[in-house]
Amino acid sequence: MGNFDHFNRGPSEYFNFDDNTYDNERNLVSVLINEYYNKFGVCLDYYITSYDTSYDKIWGEDNNRRYIRNFEVQGYLDIPKEDKIWSKFGIEGTDEVRVWISKRNFEASSIDKTNTQIYKAPQIGDIIRTDYSNYFYEITEVAEDSGNYFQSRQHVWELTIRPMKNENIESSPGVSGTPIEQITSLDDIFDIKNTVDVKKDDVLYEPESGEQPNKDPFGNW
Q1: Domains of the chain: which residue ranges?
Q2: 3-state SS track over 86-124
Q3: Residue 102 host element (H or E)
C-alpha cells in the first residue's frame, strides 16, 4: 500500500483556478505582469491591418487591405540583431522574433479616441514597429502564453514576428502622418503608366508635289 493511495486523484479544490474564488489572484497576476512589461519592456507601435473575408466571397481573400489605425503598447522581446543576407532573390531578413505582450495592457492601449473600439486580440498580418530602431515587423503567428501563471493562458499574448515586406497596402486617414505612411506612400520609380497613357501627337507630314502613295499589292487590306 502506497503512502498516497488514499488521496483523491481528482482536481484539488485548493488549486481550481477556474473557480470564481480565484478572481482576486488572477487579477493580481495580471497586474503584476502588466507592471513588469511596462517597466522592463520595449515601446512598440501597433498597426491594425484590415482583412475582410467577404471582399472575395469565392476565395475568402481581401485584395483591398489597408492600415486602419495604430496605438502604442509595451512588449517584452529579445532585441534582434536585424541581420540581412543578400541572395539571388534580393535582400532578405534573417530575423524571426517572439514578442510577449500583456493582454491587460494590449486591450487598454487599443481603445480608440472615441472610447468605443477595443482591439481585443492581435491578428496575423498586423504590423509592429519597434520604437528604438524604427524597424517594422509583420505578425505571422498569434498564441496565448501560459508562462506557468496558475497554468492559465489568460494573461499574455505570444507573437511571432518577422521583418515586414511592403505589399503596397494603402493607409487610411487613421494612420495619417505616422511612420508607416512614410514607407508605404513612396513614389514608384518604375511606374510608367503616365508615360504609356499620354496621348501622342498626330504625325504632321506634307507630301511633296507629285508624290504618289505606295501601291499596296494586297489592295490596302
Answers
A1: 17-188
A2: EECCEEEECCCEEEEEEHHHHHHHHCCCCCCCCCCCCCC
A3: strand 97-102
Question: What cell does 86 get?
Answer: 543578400
161: Cα separation from own chain's centroid: 9
What is the pTM (predicted TM-score) of this model? 0.68
**Amino acid (one-letter) located at 2:** G
Q: How large a percentage of the chain has pLDDT more than 70?
A: 72
**Cα–Cα dist 83/187, whole Å:** 27
Average predicted confidence (pLDDT) for the chain:
78
CA atoms within 13 A on the CB side of 85: 5
Count of residues in the chain: 221
| Run of H or E including 31 | helix 23-40
Strands 127-130 and 42-49: antiparallel
Query: So what's the pLDDT on residue 63?
Result: 76
Give tens-digit pLDDT for 137-163.
999 999 887 666 555 778 889 999 988
What's phi and psi for 174, nearest 5 deg?
A: -65, -20
C-alpha span between 216 and 124 (Å, rounded): 64
3-state secondary structure at position 37: helix
Rounded to the nearest 10 degrees, how much is the dihedral formed by the CA atoms of 142, 137, 107, 114?
-140
